[in-house]
Each structure stands twice: as C-alpha cells, then as structure tokens.
Write a structure and sequence with these properties.
By secondary structure, the protein is α/β, with parallel strands linked by helices. It has a single domain (about 55-80, about 100-275), classed as P-loop containing nucleotide triphosphate hydrolases (Rossmann fold). It has 12 helices and 10 strands. It has helices spanning about 5-15, 70-75, 100-105, 125-130, 140, 150-160, 175-190, 205-220, 230-240, 255-260, 265-270, 275; strands at about 30-40, 45-55, 60-65, 85-90, 95, 110, 195-200, 225-230, 240-245, 250-255. The strands form 2 sheets. It has a 6-stranded mixed beta sheet, with helices on both faces. Helix 4 (about 125-130) runs parallel beside helix 7 (about 175-190) and helix 6 runs antiparallel to helix 7 (about 175-190). It is globular, with a radius of gyration of 20 Å. The N and C termini lie far apart (about 65 Å). It binds adenosine-5'-triphosphate and magnesium ion. Magnesium ion binds near residues 70 and 71.
C-alpha cells in the first residue's frame, strides 16, 4: 500500500472524533429557548416561570444574587435537572426535555463547572487531545497517531486559550487561571454550539480576568456563550446583553447600564455589595 494511501486511511480511523455537522436549526429563532420553566426542590421554587432566549452566536451574561437559580438554570439546560413544567428547546428542532444528559452534550452544549478538572499529570496538549476523543479509554492507542485535522484544532485552541507556549508542560504546573482556560479549551475541542460557563473568573488575578474576557468575547459569533458571574467588573468588560435572575425568574434584561440603573435590580443587590463588588 502506498504511503499516501495508508495515511489517508489512517485519517479515516479518526472520523468518529470529528463531530457530525450540528443539526441545530436556528433559522426560525434563537439557539436556546426556555419558556415558563419551573422546578421545585421540596416545595421551594428554585426556578419559577423562567423565560429566556439566547440568539445564535450571542454572548449572554447572567447575574443575580446567591440562590437566584443561575446554576439550576444550567442544570436544566444540560439535562442534569428536570423541570416540573415548561419548555426548553435547542434551536427549533431539539426538545431538550426529551433528551438525556449525554445526548444533550453530543448535540453541542458544553458546560464548564466552577472547579477546573484538568488531568494534572498530562501535558496541556494531551489534555486537549483527550478532550477530543469520544471514548477516553482508547487514548493510549491514539497518542502519536493523531490525524492532521485534530492536530490543527489543538493548535487553534492552544492559540485561543493563550497556552501555546505551555503545550508540553504538565497541566499540574499551570496557574489557577491557566487551568480554567485549559478546561474551556477542552470544551472547545468539541466545537460546541453553546457553551455554558459558571463563574469563570472566581479566584483569578486581574490580569487573568482580562485574558478570560478576551477569550470569551473572542468566541462570540462562532459559538453562543452563556456566562454566569458575580464579578461585576468582569461582567461589564464582556457584557452585551445581561439578564438578571432573582428568585428563579428574570428580573431585568438589557445592557449593563440599563440593568444596573434598574431600581428593582438595585434593590435586590442592596446588602450584597461586598459580593457584587
Ligand atoms: N438539588 C437541590 N436540592 C435542593 N435545593 C436546591 C438544589 N439545587 C439548588 N437548590 C436551591 O435552589 C436555589 C437556587 O440555587 P442555585 O444554585 O441555582 O443558585 P445560584 O443562582 O447558582 O447561586 P450562587 O450565585 O450562590 O451560585 C437555592 O436556594 C438552592 O439552595
Ligand atoms: Mg451557582
């Protein structure tokens, strides 16, 4: 077999790693549509008649006091928590309430939890490589035989996350901020259509926050991103449209200036100023 031919066949082995063209249909409206969503925990409505839509390619910030329901909202979108009532659609084709958590992830919804969960003993590069494989158990047989498109994607993501120089270093030596970027990078390997990020800058230095702002704003247009964050300075630096959640519902929505001057929002944040600062 010629070398060229064997190389071509080798690439085919990796076809399963290239996500199928996402079938999400956004021609008739938003990428995320939530209508009258309610979920109770022991009679307490953590989400209460929530209505929220996110446009394709949008970067949306969600703010709100502790316990407002922000994380629960992400749990509902990703299928971790089932609402008692309401509708949750991904584009106009996919009813997320009929899908399992893994099915929703496969559809192109990536979620970043607050605590980074990178593999410390592996290099930055290997972490990204691992994030690309569908079946994590097959990794050892894939190392050193990565198909060209996969390598290109890793290079792209290294660039986006500013980790190119650190590609061969073990993830364990990264700073807290760099680990957060690596984890966002691991999600980006799958080219999600919608990325959910819960409190990305908690514990970051000012400089790391600025870099994170660049990373997230750089994704807008290509991916839709929903960012939950308490740090108002950070939110201001990336915000286009901001949604304020309170007691499980949308209290206000608009530009950062609009929501911050809204008397209802000011009232809700009174007494929370240390946290919101
Ligand atoms: N699995 C659960 N069982 C019982 N109560 C829950 C559960 N998950 C969330 N809650 C409650 O629902 C409410 C909303 O919680 P959630 O974590 O969504 O708030 P949040 O807006 O993310 O707050 P924070 O800013 O502190 O992260 C809280 O009162 C919380 O205690
Ligand atoms: Mg939360």
């Amino acid at each position: 077999m010629s070398l060229i031919k064997s190389l071509a066949q080798r690439d085919r082995v990796f076809d399963f790693m290239v996500p199928a063209q996402s079938p999400v249909d956004v021609r008739h409206g938003p990428i995320l549509y939530m209508e009258d969503v309610t979920v109770s925990f022991d009679g307490f409505k953590a989400i209460n008649d929530l209505n929220l839509t996110v446009d394709d390619g949008e970067l949306r910030c969600i703010i709100g006091p502790n316990g407002a329901g922000k994380t629960t909202m992400m749990d509902i979108i990703t299928g971790k928590t089932r609402p008692d009532q309401g509708k949750v659609w991904f584009g106009s084709r996919h009813n997320l309430l009929t899908m399992s958590e893994p099915e929703i992830a496969t559809l192109g919804i990536g979620r970043k939890f607050q605590k980074p969960t990178v593999f410390e003993a592996l290099s930055v590069f290997e972490n990204l490589e691992l994030a690309m494989t569908a079946d994590k158990r097959v990794l050892p047989t894939l190392i050193a035989r990565l198909a060209a498109p996969a390598r290109e994607r890793i290079d792209e993501v290294l660039e986006m996350t500013g980790l190119t120089e650190l590609r061969q270093r073990p993830a364990g030596i990264l700073s807290h901020g760099q680990k957060q970027w690596l984890e966002i990078g691991m999600l980006l390997m799958q080219r999600p259509r919608l990325l959910l990020v819960d409190e990305p800058v908690a514990g970051m230095t000012e400089q790391e926050m600025e870099r994170t702002a660049e990373l997230l704003t750089g994704l807008a247009g290509k991916q839709s991103v929903v960012v939950v964050e308490h740090d108002m300075g950070f939110v201001r630096s990336i915000a286009r449209k901001v949604t304020v959640l309170h007691q499980g519902s949308v209290l206000a929505e608009g530009s950062m200036d609009q929501v911050q001057s809204d008397p209802r929002v000011i009232e809700v944040y009174l007494g929370e100023s240390e946290e919101a600062a």
